[in-house]
């Protein structure tokens, strides 16, 4: 089947089997490997991308379900000149990562979180990020990064 998507601002047409997961289309067909596969069961959030501006776990949805959709991966979050998105910059500044495996999904979820809850409290951030698992950090610096990123997104 042919699926037409707009990925990171660029129109893409890809040939996929009907059972191709969105994460497979992104990683294998488009060679955008920043989106990670962690659990294959939508539990860890490492595969999170934005579909039409909303966070979606791409390991749990078929590519064909997103015909015509606009998909943003971690590779498309930064500006064309390489300037980091405020959330990416905040994760870097606050060291909201350790091994980095969860980071791309965490950043994408945080962008959606801050678009919908720009003034979320620490508790709300922790609750809203429950679908993203980090096995390394203890979340303290992730929460700080989300708070800083939210402020940066409001000022952008």
Please describe the structure with a list of short key phrases separated by commas or semicolons:
156 residues, alpha+beta, Ubiquitin-like (UB roll), DNA polymerase, domain 1, 2 domains, five-stranded mixed sheet, 5 helices, 15% strand
Instruction: Report Rg.
Output: 15 Å
CATH superfamily of the largest domain: Beta-grasp domain
* Strand order, sheet with most strands: 2-1-5-3-4
Unreliable stretches (pLDDT < 50, length at least 5) are: none
Mean of residue pLDDT values: 95
Oligomer: single chain
Which structural category do the helix and sheet elements fall into?
alpha+beta
**How large a portion of the residues is in β-strands, by DSSP E?**
5-15%
Q: What's the architecture of the largest domain in CATH terms?
A: Roll
How many separate helices?
Answer: 5
Helix-strand string = EEHEEEHHHH
Number of domains: 2
Helix content: 25-40%
Taking the sheet with the most strands, its summary is: 5 strands, mixed
CATH class of the largest domain reads Alpha Beta
Write down the overall geometry. Answer: globular
Q: CATH topology of the largest domain, anyone?
A: Ubiquitin-like (UB roll)
Q: How far apart are the termini?
A: 39 Å
Number of strands: 5
Structural write-up:
The protein has two domains: about 1-75, Ubiquitin-like (UB roll) (Roll); about 85-155, DNA polymerase, domain 1 (Orthogonal Bundle), CATH 1.10.150. About 35% of the residues lie in helices and about 15% in strands. The chain contains five helices and five strands, in the order ββαβββαααα. The chain has a five-stranded mixed sheet with strand order 2-1-5-3-4, with helices on both faces. It starts with a strand and ends with a helix. About 40% of the residues are buried.
